[in-house]
Structures are given as structure tokens and as C-alpha cells.
Amino acid sequence: MIRVDQVSHQIGGAPILHDISLEIPKGGITALIGPNGAGKSTLLSLMARLQVLRQGEIHIDDMQIGKVSDRVLARHLAIMAQSTHVSARLRVEELVAFGRYPWHRGRPGPEDHALVEAAIARFGLGPMRARFLDEISGGQRQRAFVAMAFAQDTDYLLLDEPLNNLDIAGARSLMRLLRQMADEDGKTVVIVLHDINYAARFADRIVALHEGRVAAQGPAAEVVTDALLRDVFGTDAEVSVIDGQPVVLV
Ligand SMILES: Nc1ncnc2c1ncn2[C@@H]1O[C@H](COP(=O)(O)OP(=O)(O)OP(=O)(O)O)[C@@H](O)[C@H]1O
């Protein structure tokens, strides 16, 4: 479980998150949604300790994230942040292999190699494994980054807008892979999504943020409503229910 207790955050004196308390249960997919600037990436980066937490506490299982070493944290939690700065002169397979670093610290063993191979296969990267990152498409690169996070083999996987750059087939297949990781491997996936329909279709629960506060949380059918679209997203788009699932008609 990820437990966020009374977390507030400021950047340059400007309040970004206001007293957020939240529990993300272990297992399944939790989607963070909300309009631009709501604080989704900030909250995710605080959970992964990419930014220093100054007010409140975050626990991952029984670890308080401010109090564990980088190595311990990296064995429990992998994050794919929104902007990833990695040398373009890195091959796909090298990128994926980086995911194992917290485990082997520079001396990969057979298990590390096996997990890298499994990640390459699972994410369909075999045909492009020897290509450099600037020789593949944006969507393929996105998949390679998710494969690196998968190779890290942590219980918790945090992904910030992983559907960026993906076409409909790519987005759907990535969400199905994440679903499989949650259902078959028992992973806990926390994912920032802009497309509410993907969140409603694939996530077990949704947390909607608005102006640095939790505006709603729960299963899609409870969260994705006309009122949410109006009050949180400021749009009069309507929600229909298809096969028991809310669908936003844009
Ligand atoms: N480095 C920074 N310096 C100043 N303000 C920042 C910085 N990073 C984020 N902010 C501000 O914090 C607020 C929350 O940003 P954040 O990126 O967490 O939102 P978000 O919900 O992920 O948005 P988006 O959907 O646009 O990615 C925004 O108002 C943003 O302008």
C-alpha cells in the first residue's frame, strides 16, 4: 500500500499540493487524473522521492520513503517520469538493462540477464533491441522506458503519462500489458493518465486531482461523472455508460 499522509508541497513559494491524504492499496491499477497543472506529476514524483518531501509523510508498505536508502527504495518502486533524459546513443537493450542496476550494482548475473530478456520479449522490443534510442519512434521509445521500469522488478510501478506518443493500438496494448502485470504478477501500478476513457477502462480505481487537492476517488463508475467533468475539468462533455462502464463522449 502507498499511504500519503497530509502531504503539502510548494515550489518557489507557490502552493502546489494542499494537505493530501490518500491510500493506494497494494495490487491493481490506480489512475491519477485531473486537468493540466492539478499536481499529478508532483504527487507521483514525491511518492518516488524525485522531489524532497517537506510536509507530510509517504509510506510504501512499512517504509517511510524519506528514511530509506536509494537502493532499498529502487528495489521496491520503479518510476517512469514524464521527461526522461537519457543519451540517445544508448541501445534499446542497454536501456532496458539499466532497470536491473539497483539489484546488481554493476555486476549483472544470470538472473539479471533473464529478467532483461523477459522485459524485451514482453514489450515486443526484440526486433529493435540493438537500435539506438534516436533510431526508433517516439512510441517505441516510450515502450522501451516502460520495459526498463518493468525489468527493475519492483512491487510498485509508477508511470507518468506513459501513453504519450502512442497510437491507439500502442496505447491499448501498453494498458493491456500493465493490466497483465497487475493481474498476473501482482504488481501495483500507479499511472498518470490524461485520457479519462483509458483510465475508466483499465484502472481499478481513479484518483482525481484538482488544484492540488483530491477531488474524487473510487472506482471509475463513481468518479467519472458529468459533475466531475464540469467541476474538475471545466468541460460540458458528457458521460455515457457503455457495457456498464463510463465513457466520455468528447
Ligand atoms: N519546477 C517547477 N517550478 C514552478 N512551478 C512548477 C514546477 N513544476 C510544476 N510546477 C507547477 O506545479 C503545478 C502542478 O504541476 P504538475 O506538473 O504536478 O501538474 P500535472 O497535474 O502533472 O499537470 P500536467 O497534466 O499538465 O502534466 C502547476 O501549476 C505547475 O505550473
TrEMBL record:
The protein's matches in Gene3D superfamilies, at most eight in alphabetical order, are given as: P-loop containing nucleotide triphosphate hydrolases
Identify the keywords attached in UniProt to this record, alphabetized.
ATP-binding, Cell membrane, Ion transport, Iron, Iron transport, Membrane, Nucleotide-binding, Transport
What terms describe the molecular function in GO for this protein?
Answer: ATP binding; ATP hydrolysis activity
Choose one Gene Ontology CC annotation of this protein and give it. plasma membrane
Top-rank taxon of the source lineage equals Bacteria
Q: Where is the ABC transporter domain?
A: 2-236
Q: Which GO terms describe its biological process?
A: iron ion transport
- What membrane topology does the annotation report for this chain? Peripheral membrane protein
InterPro entries given in the database record: AAA+_ATPase, ABC_transporter-like_ATP-bd, ABC_transporter-like_CS, P-loop_NTPase, Siderophore_ABC-ATPase
Q: Where in the cell is it found?
A: Cell membrane
The reply to whether Transport figures as a keyword in the UniProt entry is yes
Q: What family does this chain come from, according to its entry?
A: Belongs to the ABC transporter superfamily.
Q: What is this protein called?
A: ABC transporter ATP-binding protein
